[in-house]
Design brief:
The protein has about 160 residues and is of the alpha+beta class. It is built from 4 helices and 5 strands, in the order βααααββββ. Strands 1-3-4-5-2 form a 5-stranded antiparallel β-sheet, covered by helices on one side. Pfam families: MaoC_dehydratas.
């Protein structure tokens, strides 16, 4: 995990991809979003989506999984090099959540994260605050998902 001082606006990380299959779309929907167009191919075809559509929350959850796995991979590499691992703080929230296009069974979504702003915390000088745009694009390069996330990041040094 990187410290606040290691980050810069424009830093982009490719997080990986997730395959949305009919089986995993239905399994997620049964547990968390049991709407007909997420559960049944025919109901999906009859809807505005035109096919079995992944829940937006499924799309967001896949993004979160890949973000966490990327951070764990970075931390393991840093530990292997004997570096101090920066443990990020909580997220105070996100905004501008958008599902731009439907994600249908058979789609593969690739996720990325790009830093859009950085600032030191006024009330907690040991922390910085990062905002990053998270996006998902389908196999045709079309934007299907995005949101702006905020997180607390530890500072390596604190100005006095």
């Amino acid at each position: 995990m990187r410290f606040f001082e290691d980050l810069h606006v424009g830093l982009r990380r490719e997080l990986g991809s997730y395959d949305f299959t009919a089986d995993n779309i239905v399994a997620f929907a049964k547990q968390f979003d049991p709407q007909p167009f997420h559960l049944d191919e025919e109901a999906g075809r009859q809807s505005l989506f035109g096919g079995l559509a992944a829940s937006g929350w499924h799309i967001a959850s896949a993004c979160m999984r890949l973000l966490v796995l990327e951070r764990q991979k970075e931390a393991a590499a840093e530990a292997a090099r004997g570096e101090t691992i920066a443990v990020w703080g909580p997220s105070p929230g996100f905004r501008d959540l958008r599902w731009h296009k439907p994600v249908l069974a058979g789609d593969t979504i690739s996720y990325a994260n790009e830093i859009v702003s950085l600032r030191a915390s006024d009330s907690r000088p040991e922390w910085g605050i990062v905002q990053a745009r998270n996006i998902g694009t389908n196999q045709r390069g079309e934007l299907v998902f995005s949101f702006l996330a905020t997180a607390f990041v530890p500072r390596r040094t604190v100005a006095n």
